[in-house]
Amino acid sequence: MKNNLLLIGAALTLSSCSMILGPSTVDVTVIGVNDFHGNLLPTSFRVPDPADRTKTLTVQAGGVEAIGGILAEARKANPNTVFVGVGDMTGASPLISGLLRDEPTIDALNGLGMAVNVVGNHELDYGLSELMRYQKGGCNSNDAAKACKFNNTFAGAKFTYIAANMLDEKTGQPVLPAYKIVQVGKAKVAFVGAVLKDTPTVVTPAGVAGLKFEDEVKSINAAIPAIKRMGADAIVALVHQGGTSRDAFDIVDCKTLTGPIVDVARGLDPAVSAIMTGHTHRGYNCLVPGPDGKDRIVIQGDALGHLLQRIDMTVDTRANRVTAIRASNVVVDAAKAPKDAAMTALVQKAKGLTDPISKTVIATLGVEQISRTAGTNGESPLGRVIADSQLAAAAPASKGGAVIAFMNPGGIRADLPVNVPNASKQVTYGDAFTVQPFGNILTVITLTGAQIKEALEQQFDNPSAGSNRILQVSRGFTYTWDNAKPKGEKVSEIKLNGQAIDPAASYRVVLNNFLADGGDGFTAFAKGTSRLGGDLDIDAFRAYLTSTTVTPDTTERVKRLN
Q1: Domains along the chain?
Q2: Max CA separation in the chain (angstroms)
Q3: What is the reported pTM?
Q4: Of 141, 179, 188, 403, which has the most beta carbons under 10 Å away?
C-alpha cells in the first residue's frame, strides 16, 4: 500500500510539472519564396484549370502587395509563422527594382518580416561587396548611379543571409553564417542553407572573385552538430538548387522529381525535416528518401513570387523533434489576395521613381508578343531577335566586325512584352529591361571554327547530365545537332551564310561578357582573342527594336535530329 501511495504521489508530481510547463508541442508555419528577382509587381502565371486539368488558366500572380496580404492571413491564423527566402531575391530584376539597385526589394522583404534568406547565385550578380552592402546597408555601392536613390540612406536587410558552402578562397572560412536559429513561438527552428556548388559557372567571374563553393551536402551536414548543440527543435534546409517534376505544383507528395536536388536530398542528415529549394524556377511538392530511407519533403515555388512554399509542422520542444509535417504551394493570386497597405505605398514610391523611364514606348512589334519559350531544337523566337540585335550592334568594323552572335538562354528573363493581350503591339523600355536586366557588356572575340564547334558541344549535359543549354544564334548561322550522338560528337553541318565553317579559320563573334568569360559552362568562349568591349546588351536590344518593326523570324537556324 505504501508503495502504491508513493507511485500515486510520483504520478501527481509529474502531472503537476506537466501542467506548470504547459504543452510541449507547437504548430509552426514556414512560408518561403524563391527566385523572387525583384518582382514587386504581379506577372502572368499559368495554373491548372480546376474544371479540366488538361487545360490551364492564366492569372496575374505574385507582387509584394498580395504576398503581404497572404502572410498577414497566415500570421493571423497561426502567430507562430516565419517567412524565409530560398535565394535570388535580387538580381535579374525588372526595372521597378533593378533601376534602383534592388533596394526597394530589400526594403519590401524587411517590411514583410523575412527572417532569413539563403544566398542564390543572383545575389552575387554585383559581387560580394554589394551583397555585404545589402546585408549591412550604406551607400558605398559599385553602382553609385543607382544606389540610395530609393531612399537617401539604405539601412540594409533586417533578415540574415546564410550560405554554409560559400567560402573565402584564401582562408577557406565561411563568408556568411551557415545557419540561423529563429525563435518561433516556443520552438527553435534552425534554417541551414547552401547555394548551388556550381555557382561559378552561372555568375560572372567578377561576381565570385575571391570565393569558392563547396559541396552542398557536405557543408550543410557539417553544420548539423552545432545546430543540435544550440537546442534546435526543428531543422529546415534552404537550398538554392533544384530540379523538375512532371507533376503540377499542386500535386502533393509527388514521386517524379529529377535533377541535382535529388542527390542533395538523399544525402542530407536525417535531422533535416524538409528541404525548401529554388534556382530551377519550377513548382513541385515532392518526396525524396533521405539516407535513413524515410521520405522527406522537397518543395519549390516556381519563381517571381507566383507561388509561396508552405511547410506546416508540429514541433515537440521537449523531444526536439518534428512529430508531423505537411507541405503545399500557395498561389499568390493578385486579384484575390488581400493587399498589404505598406507594400502598396512602397510599390507606388518605386513606380513614381521609375515609371517615367519604364513607360517610354520604344518600338512597335509586328506581333502582340515575342515568346522566349524554346522549341524542341532549343531555339526561341525571342532568342533569335536578341542574337540578331547583338550582331547588328557589333557588325560595323568600328564595333568589332562581328559575323556571328551567341546568346545564352538563361539571360532572356521574360517574354516581350511580359503580359498580353497587347493589341497596340507597343513595347516600352520597361518591357525591354525586363527581358535583359543584367546590364551585360557586348564583347567581340576571335574564335577559330574548331573553337566554335567546341563551344556548341558544351551545350549538352549542361548544367547537368541530361540537361541542355542551347545557345541562341544570329541570322545566317546554322548547324545541326543529333540527340542520339554521344557528347562531343553531336554537332555537325556548321555554316555561316550557307558556307561550311572552316575549323582553322578565324571568325569574329559577339556575345555578352558573361559568356565571353566562360559563363554557363561555355569555357571554349574564354579562349577567344582580340577582345573588344562594346555596347550594353539592353542598349543594343533597344536600338534594334527601335530601328524596325520586329516580327520573329521563323526560319530554323538550329536543326535537331532525334
Answers
A1: 25-351 (3.60.21.10), 360-560 (3.90.780.10)
A2: 106
A3: 0.83
A4: 179
